Amino acid sequence: MTPFILRALKRIRIILAALLCAAFAGCGVSIKYSLSGASIPPDARTFSVAYFPNNATMVSPILSSTMTDALVDIFTRRTRLMQVDEGGDFAFEGEIVNYTSATASVSSDDYALLNRLTITVKVRFTNALDETASWNRTFTAYEDYDSSLLLTEVEGTLIPEIVDKLVTDIFMASASNW
């Protein structure tokens, strides 16, 4: 395309964007933007997170506290909600139901190359302001690690990485309309 056509297309896009903005402003449509991706109702003020016990067959001593603390942390950092001990407008309770390490990749001569640490949590989310937004869901995340390493050598690094994925998924499921 010629430079003239490109400039004309750019001007048309700018004009269309301005018209859309004016149309939304004139119709009284309220659009809220959030850098965190959260869409929290304006009347929500609090959140609560109950301790997540590790009820998996295999147990890591740091997993329950890491999971619980990470969920509190993400809501503290990414929302305006205040934490309460129990009965928050957004309330979370749940349990760790799976913590396993298994072979993820095998070489051509049947040797394990990678192992996979998988964590699964069941979460009960209660939205006290809108019961229809409440849910019970299971979330799973994993990380692979070199099979030449023992799980005890890598779990201190892998658990926070996996928990970060889990709490991000939980946050998006409870605090966004996507």
Poorly predicted ranges:
19-36
Give the count of helical stretches: 3
Number of strands: 5
Mean pLDDT: 84
Choose one word for the global shape: elongated
Order of helices and strands: HEHEEEEH
- Counting helices, strands and paired strands, the structural category is alpha/beta
Whole-angstrom Rg: 23 Å
**CA distance, first residue to last residue:** 37 Å
Largest sheet: 5 strands, mixed
What proportion strand? 25-35%
Helix content: 25-40%
What's the arrangement of strands in the largest beta sheet? 2-1-3-4-5
Describe this structure in words.
By secondary structure, the chain is an alpha/beta fold. It has 3 helices and 5 strands, in the order αβαββββα. The chain has a 5-stranded mixed sheet, covered by helices on one side. A hairpin with a 7-residue loop joins strand 4 (112-127) and strand 5. Helix 2 (63-78) packs parallel to helix 3 (151-175). It is elongated and about 60 Å long.
Q: Gist?
A:
With 178 residues, the protein is of the alpha/beta class. Helices cover 37% and strands 29% of the residues.
Summarize this structure as a short list of keywords or feature phrases.
single chain, 178 residues, alpha/beta, five-stranded mixed beta sheet, 5 strands
